[in-house]
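Entry 14. Two folds queued back to back today. First construct below, sequence then structure tokens.
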Amino acid sequence: MAADLEEKTDRYERMLADALAVAEPRLPADTPLGEAAADVTEMAESYLDDGRHFRDDGDPVNALASYSYGYGWLDAGVRLGLFAVPDDTELFTT
């Protein structure tokens, strides 16, 4: 069981980091939706950082939860049209 948790935590950390790397805001930063995209990015980055902190502290359960929440924020932003993502990616549920 512990190996499954470790593998899943690794996978979700990579998935969130990769998603953050490819998601580009669609709208100008000085518009309300551009500000929303910046907020979503900040939340996703914060959850990635939190997950890494939990992991360093030996808490893989909360690390996995953090990565999952961060990814959920970013995926919702993509679905709302706040971000452009490559057509050939399977990272998002568009």
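Second construct, same run, same settings:
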Amino acid sequence: MKRFSTATRVLSVAALTIMGAGLAACGGGGGSSSADSATAAKGPIKIWYSNNEFEVKWGKAMVESWNAAHPDQKIDAQEIPAGKSSEEVIGAAITAGNAPCLVFNTAPVAVPQFQKQGGLVALDSFPDGAQYIKDRTGDLADQYKSTDGKMYQLPWKSNPVVLFYNKDIFAKAGLDAENPKLGSHAEFLETARTLVKSGATANAVWPSPASDFFQSWFDFYPFYAANTDGTPLLKDGKATFDSEEGKQVATMFETLYKENLASKEVFQGDAFGEGKSAMSLAGPWAIAAYKDKVNWGAVPVPAAEAKADTSTFSDAKNVAMYSACENQGTAWEVMKFATSQEQDGKLLAGTGQMPMRKDLATAYADYFAKNPLYTQFAEQAGRTVEVPNVPNSVEVWQTFRTAYAKSVIFGNESIDSAFKGAAEKIDQLAAQK
């Protein structure tokens, strides 16, 4: 399963609580004349980007290109400062009033909290803001609107989650490694049983059983997206997972654990990358990570009944503008420059992550022709579902994760009871402001 680096890990509930303690010290975004002048102001700006080595290389080149053409509006760039998580660092900077103008690694799950802190600038406040986002991203952009109808994040890049499998382990188990039977829940379970019973592996799949709220993004949520054609965990302020489709996914995972096809222990590392499991849920970042380590294949995440073109979790990171920024006019122009077709192409080539563009496959047809391993991710990128942009987002996910672990993983409560209780509590959390 994917492990979060310092700059990509997401916030714990405790960290968000600490961040929230500083709300009184923060001003709102507002629609004042000073805010209007800020959106037009030009001059030097500061930005932060991820500490991922490939993104750092892209970021430095992007900044150098901008600065060469705009000597009076230079970018001062750095990696997100070290901390427990990048989101905690950003939240603390908002509270202190010294956040950078732009952060090129804003987790969608943290946006509602940053917005509540008064720390974000609505991108709709720029005359061409809404249109630029719509033109670049298409209908997928709608998932990133906040509950007030505004956009506080620019959809930037995604890592659509698919099902990776180890061809060597599959072959050892006597399975067809080139055309595996993984099209439905029944096929997935039968393949898992064969993998373990053959002795080829002790674990067919090893999603983390840890209680961290984000772990559901790499077990339940991609399968739920596939089984519902892209339904988010919440829709119109109401939980959706306490349904037949949600329980089908939960029951499938419950079977994996009951039959000892998946471990209930936390693996310190990457179980798939180290050959300790035969399958894993991951995005295109895994291609470079598993190169020369795993003889892998990948298929779309299966639904209960086999279907073409299933949806999945996006695992996106976005760009946001922070309200401490004085020269917001420049910041907006930099945001557009950094997400232009040219810069998106360089990001794709340098990192293998999918720019969130509606024309992705056609705009970079030459790249995908030369790098066919990434083609399925480009196709999948248009069928992704995001973390719902709702108040108390982290608490919502923690509530779900606790119920899921208690029922599905450890069998201490029925799925019906756990999901019903979690849905009721989540509806209440989502209704709070």
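Quick look at the second one. Residues 154 and 319 are 5 Å apart (CA to CA). The first helix runs from residue 13 to 20.
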